[in-house]
Amino acid sequence: SRHLAEFWMIEPEVTYINLEELMDLAEKYLKYCVKGIISSRPDEMKLFDDFVSKGLLEKLNKVSENDFTRISYTEAVKLYNNKNSPKINWGDDLSSEVEKYICEKIFKNTTIIYDYPKEIKSFYMKNNEDNKTVQAFDILVPGIGEIIGGSIREENYEVLKTKIIDNNISLESLSWYLDLRKFGSCPHGGFGLGFERLIMLLTGISNIRDVIPFPRYPNHCNC
Question: How far, in Å, CA of 153 to CA of 219, rounded?
Fold first, then answer.
């Protein structure tokens, strides 16, 4: 109900920004989208609130008005393990069930988890000084799960080349990406907002296949 094989993303990329500023930008952008729809389409939003998802407007107003909770991956694992069994290990990728528990049960709020282990994130994300985690974050919304994922990118050519090799990725296949750094770059970061998941949030529709005109998902057109 939350995944498609083909989907749309809104992907801003910003120069000279750090992780804290990038999380601020992502939070402000999501709130901007929610506030904009509520104010510009009141009749349609009332319809969704009345007939699709009771309490939708109250939920959306909470998203747009309240500060998002922020917690590191390490803190999130400790919090989850304190209240649940079986435990998850540091370094495990967080399942959708774990993410749902953290934002819906523990905080009851839109939640940003940041500083993930480098082994479970993409090679292009910039390492933290501990060399164990990367400057990455996800935004989790109650009822939806992850809606935004972002990171600070590694702009140093030699570091990026080493990370590609360490991840057993062909240097030749990413020569174009390396060249962007080899011939001059700058510190930068960005995030991706899943457009269909944004529509799910705004409408209260629970299945992602119902918010895209031509849904494509695994095994849907077997012959």
Answer: 34
Q: Supply the DSSP symbol for 209.
A: G
CA distance 74 to 5: 30
Contact (Cβ atoms closer than 8 angstroms) between residue 189 and residue 151:
yes
Mean pLDDT score of the chain: 95
Instruction: Write the pLDDT tens digit of every residue in 40-71.
Output: 999 999 999 999 999 999 999 999 999 999 99
Q: For residues 5 and 122, what is the distance between their CA atoms, to the nearest angstrom?
A: 19
In the 8-state DSSP scheme, what is residue 127?
B
Q: Determine which helix (DSSP H) or strand (DSSP E) holds 28, and give its type and residue range.
A: helix 19-40
CB atoms within 10 A of CB 148: 24
pTM: predicted TM-score of the whole model, two decimal places: 0.94
Peptide bond into 86 cis (omega under 30): yes
Question: Are 182 and 157 contacting, i.e. CB atoms less than 8 angstroms apart?
Answer: yes
Report residue 186: phi and psi, to 5°: -155, 160
The candidate with the shortest Cα–Cα distance to 138, out of 43, 37, 26, is: 26
